[in-house]
């Protein structure tokens, strides 16, 4: 959000002049509201981040209407060079008055003129209240004034006063906008004014020239650094450059860069002021990454910094940094755009997760292994207001209880044998303002569950061996593939912690619930892995119908397996799970239509239907025809609660869907070939999901 500044002064012209100066330097980073005391008394509340006032007298008039949080800057004024020249042309020994809006401002401006070196004339301050003394006098006037000038013999108008450099810097510092001024040549912006801050003006001029060069050099001193001037002559050459290029400093200094590296064209940088982005070249047989950065201020080229690095060194550093950042989980990589799928169910869950991202409440993501729980957790973080802060991940199953406690809570120096000197902050502290991701939360020991609950309640932690509490502002996202409610019943997970963690529950669907995504997902992963093969229609159908207990992770494994076969076309027989038996149990398109309709109607009683089909299949193999009463007796023996009437209704439903044939009288019911196929399919794809009789 842009900062707001209120400018308060006597006259419209003066306030507008200040506003133009400020806008020219800070451009769109500030919004400005103007108040003119000469037009009317100010009677409304002034809300701004900073108030710029012309004088103490001005401040007194508006003080009752200021926000107490607003910062205040008094305007240090100066005059333009043109106005200065007008005063210098006044004949020596002339006595005249300077008219300003108040005694304070008039005296201040007279003092400024003397400080600027105007000593050849006598200047008296004139202001409202003593302006009756102006009759017959020569007056210096600052632009358009609200004061009475009637009776003056001569008026020398030197133009409106301007804000001095020091005031602009004060504004930038109080609003944390100095970085904007650092990217501009302030001195050039003030070339038309006369400043009393001679020392400050000189320092700014020097700093503008060398600031960006110094910043770059300090950041990259470990690499090879070559500095060249606008004509291409080398004026900086460090030891890193000596080592990589093989030319010592004494032989390189003062030479043209083209003599040192004739194969690289630097004309684009020197003439067009365009950088050379990282480019891989060879020097002395080494692979070297070279980049060139122009040093520019206000469109003027002051030189170029060339950075050279050995490629092997870059690889080693990247490996170490990646291990530190990704291994400790201090940033989230994935966004919702990275979650692939066009099925309605995955769109629904992505939309739910997006809404959850707007909240600060704890989220519990559940689902089978390989469904993308961590992917969703990172996407939620990257869509939340905490996205600029850390995403700190810890796997609760990967480390021992004692180590997990020290990782989460941190420790003080000497807290235990082997504790790091100076102690170590815990992950709760590192995640401050961000997200703490607890992977496999179901594996957390009960002892730590109690401590975690306290952190969630109090939002403060104490390091191991410490005595002080540390406030933390974190959002918890937990994931698990275990049934935490069953663990609560078994006494393995705290019920109160469960409800703290699952304020916003998200149960991700397995891959078999979004079968229309399977083949598009497969093709997307193929592209990511850069593997090339095609599937026959029968292989596609089999993969679409497969149970995918390992979900997307299992699908990725299969793609890597197909790539390892070294064949272009993958057929049904090439699938790892294919067998003659499983092929016999595969439903054709017409059978799938019947089965899906049956599944939608009978889903809640699927265990019972499987029981009936199994018993009818046994009877068929034993050449026995089973009636309702026989099936009822078997159900009672197996503790399956079914009445004879329920069995009758379910048998009718099975016959309607062509899975059995019901005979009249004592003929009983017989399973059909289609019924046997459905039974085998259900046993492969439904019983394995937990529907046990």
Automatic annotation (TrEMBL):
Residues 210-258 form the PAS domain. SUPFAM superfamilies: P-loop containing nucleoside triphosphate hydrolases (SSF52540), PYP-like sensor domain (PAS domain) (SSF55785). Pfam families: AAA_lid_14, PAS, Sigma54_activat. Keywords: ATP-binding, Nucleotide-binding. It comes from the Bacteria. CDD domains: AAA, PAS. The keyword ATP-binding applies. Residues 339-564 form the Sigma-54 factor interaction domain. InterPro entries: AAA+_ATPase (IPR003593), AAA_lid_NorR (IPR058031), P-loop_NTPase (IPR027417), PAS (IPR000014), PAS-like_dom_sf (IPR035965), PAS_fold (IPR013767), Sigma_54_int (IPR002078), Sigma_54_int_dom_ATP-bd_1 (IPR025662). This is Sigma 54-interacting transcriptional regulator. It comes from Clostridium moutaii.
């Amino acid at each position: 959000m842009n900062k707001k500044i209120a400018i308060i002064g006597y006259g419209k012209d003066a306030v507008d002049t200040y506003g133009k100066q400020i806008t020219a330097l800070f451009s769109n980073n500030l919004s400005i509201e103007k108040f003119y005391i000469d037009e009317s008394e100010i009677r409304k509340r002034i809300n701004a981040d900073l108030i710029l006032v012309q004088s103490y007298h001005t401040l007194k008039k508006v003080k009752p209407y200021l926000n107490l949080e607003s910062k205040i800057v008094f305007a240090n004024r100066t005059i333009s060079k043109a106005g200065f020249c007008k005063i210098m042309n006044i004949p020596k020994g002339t006595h005249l008055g300077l008219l300003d809006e108040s005694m304070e401002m008039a005296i201040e401006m007279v003092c400024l003129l003397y400080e600027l070196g105007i000593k050849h004339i006598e200047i008296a301050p004139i202001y409202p209240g003593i302006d009756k003394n102006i009759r017959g006098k020569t007056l210096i006037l600052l632009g358009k004034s609200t004061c009475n000038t009637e009776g003056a013999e001569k008026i020398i108008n030197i133009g409106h006063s301007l804000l001095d450099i020091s005031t602009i810097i004060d504004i930038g510092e109080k609003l944390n906008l100095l970085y904007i001024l650092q990217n501009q040549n302030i001195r050039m912006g003030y070339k038309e004014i006369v400043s009393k801050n001679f020392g400050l003006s000189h320092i700014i001029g020097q700093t503008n020239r060398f600031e960006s060069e110094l910043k770059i050099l300090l950041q990259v001193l470990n690499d090879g650094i070559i500095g060249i001037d606008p004509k291409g002559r080398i004026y900086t050459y460090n030891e890193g450059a000596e080592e990589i290029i093989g030319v010592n400093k004494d032989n390189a200094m003062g030479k043209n860069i083209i003599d040192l590296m004739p194969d690289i064209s630097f004309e684009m940088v020197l003439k067009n002021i365009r950088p050379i982005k990282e480019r891989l070249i060879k020097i002395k047989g080494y692979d070297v990454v070279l980049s060139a950065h122009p040093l520019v201020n206000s469109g003027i080229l002051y030189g170029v910094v060339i950075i050279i690095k050995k490629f092997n060194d870059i690889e080693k550093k990247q490996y170490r940094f990646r291990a530190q950042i990704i291994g400790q989980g201090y940033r989230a990589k994935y966004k919702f755009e990275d979650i692939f799928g066009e099925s309605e169910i995955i769109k629904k869950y992505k939309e739910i997760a997006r809404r959850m991202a707007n909240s600060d409440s704890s989220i519990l993501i559940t689902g089978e292994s390989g469904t993308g729980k961590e992917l969703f957790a990172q996407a939620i973080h990257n869509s939340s207001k905490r996205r600029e802060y850390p995403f700190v991940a810890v796997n609760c199953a990967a480390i021992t209880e004692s180590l997990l406690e020290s990782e989460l809570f941190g420790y003080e120096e000497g807290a235990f044998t082997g504790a790091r000197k100076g102690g170590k902050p815990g992950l709760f502290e590192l995640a401050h303002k961000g997200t703490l991701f607890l992977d496999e939360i179901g594996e957390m020991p009960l002892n730590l569950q109690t401590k975690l609950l306290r952190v969630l309640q109090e939002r403060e932690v104490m390091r191991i061996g410490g005595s002080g509490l540390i406030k933390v502002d974190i959002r918890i996202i937990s994931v698990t593939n275990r049934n935490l409610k069953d663990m609560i019943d078994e006494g393995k997970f705290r019920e109160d912690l469960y409800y703290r963690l699952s304020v916003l529950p998200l149960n991700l669907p397995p891959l078999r619930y979004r079968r229309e995504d399977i083949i598009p997902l497969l093709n997307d992963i193929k592209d990511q892995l850069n593997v090339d093969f095609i599937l026959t229609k029968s292989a596609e159908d089999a993969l679409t119908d497969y149970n995918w207990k390992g979900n997307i992770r299992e699908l990725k494994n299969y793609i890597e397996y197909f790539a390892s076969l070294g064949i272009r076309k993958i057929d049904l027989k090439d699938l790892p799970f294919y067998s003659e038996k499983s092929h016999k149990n595969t439903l054709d398109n017409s059978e799938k239509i019947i089965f899906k309709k049956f599944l939608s109607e009978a889903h809640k009683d699927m265990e019972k239907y499987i029981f009936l089909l199994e018993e009818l299949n046994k009877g068929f193999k034993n050449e026995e025809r089973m009636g309702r009463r026989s099936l009822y007796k078997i159900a009672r023996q197996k503790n399956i609660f079914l009445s004879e009437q329920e069995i009758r209704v379910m048998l009718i439903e099975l016959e309607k869907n062509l899975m059995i044939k019901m005979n009249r009288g004592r003929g009983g019911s017989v399973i059909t070939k289609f019924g046997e196929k459905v039974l085998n399919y259900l046993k492969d794809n439904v019983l394995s999901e937990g529907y046990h009789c």
